[in-house]
Write a sequence for this structure.
């Protein structure tokens, strides 16, 4: 029996690893979190003199965090939070970053700490941050508690939709004393989105297929409750896997049958072999898919549309230009 | 009771072939996308007549113009073909190992041979080992090579610990070896972080997106390595009684062992390099079939070809349709079914021994 138990354990370990990978690959938009639409109240307390010194934010798990003054030393574990920090001009406060943070380029100069399932408290504490920004995925309650006890404020950002991204930017802005910059970033995102929405002539009759993992590694598509789905709706396109929730592995047959008019792949080019869009064009049996016939395949490989960060607007613009043509 | 027959008779071949044909048709007709039976038949009829036109009358082939025919001819049919060939190969390899090692729990996945093969494939992917002109020969050669080395390492270690190669020792070493290999795999992944997805795929196993070319390679491997195993059915029978016995009845033990080990590694390596690690097929099917055919390898081995193909085709069908339009990895289905069977078999053999 011992062996079979071991066997099952190995299996369990493999499955868990695979699930973790799948979750990590989702970059936070898996849409499985109950905290969606958490209270977005961001308040700032002013002390008697009317000088803003202490800041209070309600994070996206509904926890209230009070700092005596805006943070100057921050560790951010998720790529999106790093992007937000740089977008609001607070990139210089970053003293540590998670493994997968890769944008903007200068973030690579910031010391790396393990993130996700390997989150290492000692590494984080050694950097002496005032605030640790993380998502719900990468933390456990005990870890958060331990960090609080060690004097590090844990702030959870967990955006599940575009509205949530605004909340996260606003929250981080308050935390860093950069409210104006944050408001500016949000406004520019909103402007881009509303422009796209106004100008798009789509009426939902054309379909788009979001490929988040190529055939070679098993097909995965972005379904409902993803940023990609939200952006497709914004420009009047119908996500052909809108009946699925979050990111899901799908059958090749289904893609052929659903016959999308456009394909967006977010596969990163490995540097050898055919480009991701060429690879899709060359797949046997796909020659009857409308998008393949028309060569209507776009590759956005820098996580523009998979991360809850300001670059969503850029990604949406790129997709808009691709579908409706640049002006 | 009649004494069991020694050979796999014509009648049995016919029955098994018919059964497999039925399963094959079922797997081609049922899939993620519902296609009416009449439509399916007409697609295949058209494809056949187009083939005939092409080869007999040298007229240009018509490429399928409809989505339905793309689904059936370029996605589903070759995939089912690959699944059947993989199932047959893995099951045959499992039966051969069980006979050779006199160990009912031996199989590519329990011994760690599949993990070894996957490590070979992953190394080839991570470090870009490839042979120009043969696009995916790199992963395949490495997978076969690592499968063979893994077998040698595992058996060598087991022999050092326990000359009789008892189930417990071999399986224990297999499990430890699998863990060792998975940590090596993690190291390789750290060096090639940009290919994590691709590598994870190897550890899960799936035959999604496989085409006729893969089927041809699997068929060639089955013909070559499978043939080697089938031709040694008599020697395997002798081994089953004991190595001493084999020597006494005139079997060249060293040569036969080497040939069988090479054949087993070849089969597992090729299967892994195409479909990733698909566990337990080689464990369950020989056991189920042994209840039907008895222990004689001359009957068991051919039955495994059919049984393995059938079992894996049905598992793949389940993977494709259980969560429509989603798709599961076939490895998940076989491991679920296999883990339960594994416990049952282990329980039965343990109890059988004590009474």
């Amino acid at each position: 029996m011992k062996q079979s138990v071991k066997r099952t354990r190995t299996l369990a370990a493999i499955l868990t690893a695979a699930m973790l990978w799948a979750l990590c690959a989702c970059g936070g938009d898996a849409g499985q979190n109950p905290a969606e639409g958490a209270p977005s109240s961001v308040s700032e307390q002013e002390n008697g003199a009317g000088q803003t010194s202490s800041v209070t934010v309600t994070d996206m798990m509904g926890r209230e965090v009070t700092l005596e003054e805006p943070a100057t030393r921050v560790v951010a574990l998720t790529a999106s939070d790093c992007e937000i920090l740089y977008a609001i001009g607070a990139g210089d406060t970053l003293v540590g970053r998670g493994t997968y943070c890769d944008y903007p380029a200068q973030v690579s100069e910031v010391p790396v700490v393990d993130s996700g399932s390997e989150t290492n408290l000692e590494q984080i504490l050694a950097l002496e941050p005032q605030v640790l920004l993380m998502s719900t995925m990468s933390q456990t309650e005990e870890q958060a508690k331990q960090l609080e006890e060690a004097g590090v404020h844990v702030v959870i950002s967990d955006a599940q939709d575009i509205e949530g991204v605004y909340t996260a930017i606003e929250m981080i802005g308050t935390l860093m004393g950069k409210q104006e910059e944050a408001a500016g970033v949000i406004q520019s995102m909103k402007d881009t989105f509303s422009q796209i929405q106004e100008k798009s002539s789509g009426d939902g009759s054309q379909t788009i297929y979001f490929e988040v993992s190529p055939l070679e590694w098993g097909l995965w598509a972005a379904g409902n409750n993803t940023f990609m789905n939200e952006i497709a709706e914004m420009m009047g396109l119908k996500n052909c896997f809108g009946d699925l929730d979050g990111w899901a592995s799908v059958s090749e047959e289904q893609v052929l049958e659903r016959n999308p008019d456009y394909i967006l792949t977010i596969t990163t080019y490995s540097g050898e072999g055919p480009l991701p869009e060429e690879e899709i064009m060359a797949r046997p049996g796909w020659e009857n898919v409308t998008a393949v016939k028309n060569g209507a395949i776009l590759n956005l490989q820098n996580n523009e549309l998979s991360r809850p960060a300001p670059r969503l607007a850029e990604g949406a613009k790129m997709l808009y230009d691709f579908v409706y043509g640049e002006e | 009771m009649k004494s069991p027959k020694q050979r796999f008779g014509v009648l049995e071949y016919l029955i098994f072939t018919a059964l497999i044909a039925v399963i094959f048709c079922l797997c081609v007709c049922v899939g993620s996308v519902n296609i009416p039976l009449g439509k399916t038949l007409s697609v295949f009829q058209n494809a056949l007549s187009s083939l005939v036109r092409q080869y007999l009358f040298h007229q240009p082939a018509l490429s399928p113009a409809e989505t339905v025919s793309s689904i059936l001819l370029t996605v589903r049919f070759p995939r089912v073909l690959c699944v059947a060939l993989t199932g047959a190969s893995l099951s045959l390899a499992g039966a051969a190992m069980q006979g050779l090692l006199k160990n009912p729990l031996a199989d590519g996945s329990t011994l760690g041979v599949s993990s070894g093969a996957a490590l070979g494939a992953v190394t080839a992917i991570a470090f870009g080992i490839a042979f120009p002109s043969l696009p995916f020969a790199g992963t395949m050669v490495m997978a076969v090579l690592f499968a063979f080395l893994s077998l040698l390492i595992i058996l060598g270690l087991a022999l050092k610990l326990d000359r009789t190669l008892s189930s417990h020792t071999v399986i224990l070493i297999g499990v430890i070896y699998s863990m060792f290999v998975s940590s090596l795999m993690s190291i390789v992944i750290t060096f090639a972080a940009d290919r994590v997805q691709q590598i994870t795929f190897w550890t899960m196993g799936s035959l999604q997106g496989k085409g006729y070319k893969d089927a041809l390679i699997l068929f060639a491997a089955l013909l070559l390595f499978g043939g080697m195993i089938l031709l040694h059915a008599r020697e395997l029978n002798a081994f089953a009684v004991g190595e001493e016995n084999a020597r006494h009845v005139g079997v060249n033990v060293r040569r036969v062992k080497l040939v069988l080990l090479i054949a087993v590694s070849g089969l597992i390596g090729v299967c892994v390099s195409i479909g990733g690690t698909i566990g337990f097929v080689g464990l369950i099917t020989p056991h189920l079939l042994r209840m039907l055919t008895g222990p004689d390898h001359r009957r068991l081995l051919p039955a495994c070809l059919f049984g393995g193909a059938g079992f894996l085709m049905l598992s793949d069908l389940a993977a494709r349709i259980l969560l429509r339009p989603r798709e599961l990895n076939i490895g998940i289905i076989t491991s679920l079914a296999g883990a339960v069977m594994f416990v049952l078999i282990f329980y039965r053999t343990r109890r059988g021994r004590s009474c």
Remarks:
- Residues 67-101 of chain B form the longest helix (35 residues).
- DSSP finds 15 helices and no strands in chain B.
- Chain B has one domain: 104-354.
- The mean pLDDT of chain B is 84.
